[in-house]
Amino acid sequence: MEGECPVPRIIVTTDPPDPDGPVTLDEQVDTVHVDSDHASRQLLDRVVWAIHDAERVEQGTRLTRR
Question: Is residue 64's pLDDT more than 60?
């Protein structure tokens, strides 16, 4: 990563984070993602979907570990 400029990101994964587990969202974000109501809603939709996906993975993991 030498020479790369850090950028803001949104990352959604399972809890506790598993290095081999799924990342349901890993997205670079910028002010363009929140400059309008439409873009903000789209970003929020993607975050909500990723949270639901991560919860499904967590629930499946809990069920199989019993």
Answer: no
